[in-house]
Amino acid sequence: MNSDPFRESLSRIPSSQGKTLIELSEAAPVLVVFLRHGGCPFCRQVLDQLKSLSAQLAERHLQLAIVHMMDEKEASSLLARYELRNVYSFSDPDRTLYELFQVRRGSLAETVGPAVWWSGFKSTVLSGYLPGIPGKDVQQLGAALILDQGKVVASYFSKNSADLPDWNQLLSCELPRE
Fold this sequence. Notes:
178 residues, alpha/beta, 5-stranded mixed sheet, 9 helices, 16% strand, globular, AhpC/TSA family protein, Thioredoxin-like_sf, AhpC/TSA, Thioredoxin_domain
């Protein structure tokens, strides 16, 4: 019997609700969002965008899973603030899933450099996504991908901490089940 190390790895890490990404992706396609640290204003902006996308996700029959580096209590509080209590939440402080999906860490310039400053100003001051206490790994970048039957069918990897996915483009991908 052939083993698939990727699928095996996905089956070892349960969400706070007890389901793994492989179980979720076998049942229905999953939008998996990798957050930066919990204090990041861009992370908060992504959560707010996900809240706004709930109808679009339901229309596409996509489940939502959020991977983060926070402990469950901190994550639960942050997700509740954005009305995302019922999403699958994966606490990954050791960055196992981040590494498995090759979500890279940014350089200092990519996380707090001058190219990020203007976006940070707009996100915090103009849009009100105030930063919190910096989290475990402030250099971890974000990503979003669609996982279907254990395979990545679409993905977006942030180029810097202010680079957020184009949700319409990502969600318009063709799903194998359709």
